[in-house]
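[09:14] KT: can someone run the structure on this one? pasting the chain below
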Amino acid sequence: MKRIFLIVLDSVGIGGAPDAAEYGDAGSNTLASAAKSPWFSMPNMQKLGLFNIEGVDCGPAAENPKGCYARMREASKGKDTTIGHWEIAGLISRKPLPVYPKGFPDRIIMAFSKACGRGVLCNRPYSGTEVIKDYGIRHMETGDLIVYTSADSVFQIAAHEEIVPVDQLYEYCRIARGLLTGDDGVGRVIARPFAGKPGSFVRTAARHDFSLEPPGETMCDVLAGAGLSVIGVGKINDIFAGKGITESVRTTDNQDGIRRTLEYMKKDFSGLCFVNLVDYDMVYGHRNDVDGYAKALSAFDRQLPRILENLRKEDLLLITADHGCDPATESTDHSRECTPLIAWGQNLIPGVDLGVRDSFGDIAATVLDYFGVEKQLAGRSFLRNLMSANQ
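[09:31] RB: done, structure tokens below
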């Protein structure tokens, strides 16, 4: 019974991609920035080879790394969660998803407002925590919806749970998702409910992403079509709009995501458990919280031994990321960075340096190869580099 646990540390980039300057991200290095914090400690990832990856010099390389490792370059155009995950799953996006640095055009806002029967506030790029500080009171007074975006391809709707019940907010997001298609097909429409009183508004855990459906086949579709399980933990189901996901569970934070993953490790299934741990990005990266980012990475590292202990003989663990979000730069947005790949399994040759990979899609190709599923997606499998000849 083969299983793969693919864990995406959301936004944990390891330094600028070759074209980072084209995205305004020259010099960004999320992991290196977090490593400067006194709260940073990742001895278990260090043993697996994190600091052996080419270009990663923010920690001591392991003399005899127990895992296999690589530096991953993104072939798609973009630097957001949706495109990053799609490429991990074998689908390269040749065209970036649309962004709206000046806010959404009137034709979109007017159609959305009419369909919802509510007015719209803000409609420009904004920090998610600042937007509720600046517009929350007016929203509560008028019932108008707070609509904002960022440097990413997102249409975000914030509303106080006492003014707009969460289920109603989700319905407004579905309306927006139906409007935002074609050239306006943003990657995600995001529900951003908040609670509390003026001066102390806080976003709640009821966030929900309504993603653009992948425009092509992914490894999730292929695996599910072959009768294998594809289990989404965290926002994986949202990112793929449910396409190819056979089972999913939402999470409240990173610790909940790790707990859910450990629960699935105790279950019998054949297939992929695809995990997203979002706090690095959502809670710390976008808020430029270096120490918080470092603490979150250290917390994952402390849980890593439990994950390794629960892997069965035929299991494969893959740890990677989808983009960067350097908490030490002036920007609060994602950064165009390479990402790490760590692979571990009882049947793998330890210490294999997989070099620099030209696409996140190499992960998808390797996953399909591991399950013996023949399908040509983006990427090149590195499985044969990991397995001994007698496996």
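[09:33] KT: thanks! The first strand starts at residue 3 and ends at 9.
[09:34] RB: yep, looked fine to me
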